[in-house]
Fold Sugar phosphate transporter domain-containing protein.
Amino acid sequence: MSADKSLVSKYITIFLVVSGYWIVSISTVFVNKTLLSNINLEAPMFIALSQTLITALICYLKKVLSATYPSTIKFPEIDVWDRYTMKTVLPLSVLFTSMIATNNLCLKYASVAYYYIGRSLTTIFNVVFTYLILGEKTSKRCIMCCAVIISGFWLGVDQENLAGSLSVAGFVFGILGSLSLSLYSIFTKRVLPKLNGEIWALTYANNVYASVMLVPIMIVNRELPELYNYSGLSDRYFWLILAAGGVCGLMIGFFTTLQIKYTSALTHNISGTAKACAQTVLATFWYNEAKSFLWWSSNIIVLMGSACYTWIKQRDMERRHRERPAYEKV
């Protein structure tokens, strides 16, 4: 009975984590789209910097409060400028920064509806990097599912092109975003145990390092003159939506790490793909976008390919577990 309760508790936790990830992630995309496209400011790296900086400040505040009220507020002990912490987390933070930057640039140059198709290659990259980095081979059936996903991706790109709404920059940054997310998911599983599984510690370090790295990127991208000449800097709405984006950045980073911790890099990628499908439907209604039958077909093809990949991958993992010697299962 206790084992059954433990299993039910585990599934409830996973359900709540995945649901939280969906809600926060979809909200983040719409808030970021407002920041990147609905205000007259050409500074996507500044938007990313504001999010990582706000997240880092919130984490620092919680860290200070935990030292003052240790019995009430908990925050893991971590020194972000410690040599061990930097050596452990900094490579992951490079991927984290790349993921944020490419996501923002993809959203800036593409619609929210296309964002799903543009980011659908995450599973493909996950298969490639899992083999190259971890040495894990993928079954032929999974590779066939990947071919289905790629065909859906290209059909969606073709339909965007025919409709005259395809952005080359959005296309490129969508692919780079998928690549960054895949690598980030894989390496998070490696880095998190080195921080004793402390998600807040990883969130804090990632956002501090990302804030530092985004400053020179923002300067190279020539965003300082754009900010200086922006007339809306005194607008309350601008700072309100910017703060909302920062809070969303904190929550999405937290729930992303939480989902990877309680599931796997593969499940996180598939969850992100399914979430993006729901996000696409919402976006077409929200922005009143009319899409063709073949465009919707591309979304369905990607979703079905991803779902089949997940099902086959899960069965392969269960089969390998049954075939392992008994002493390895202990």
Notes: Residues 16-318 form one domain. The longest helix spans residues 2-37. Residues 152 and 330 are 42 Å apart (CA to CA).
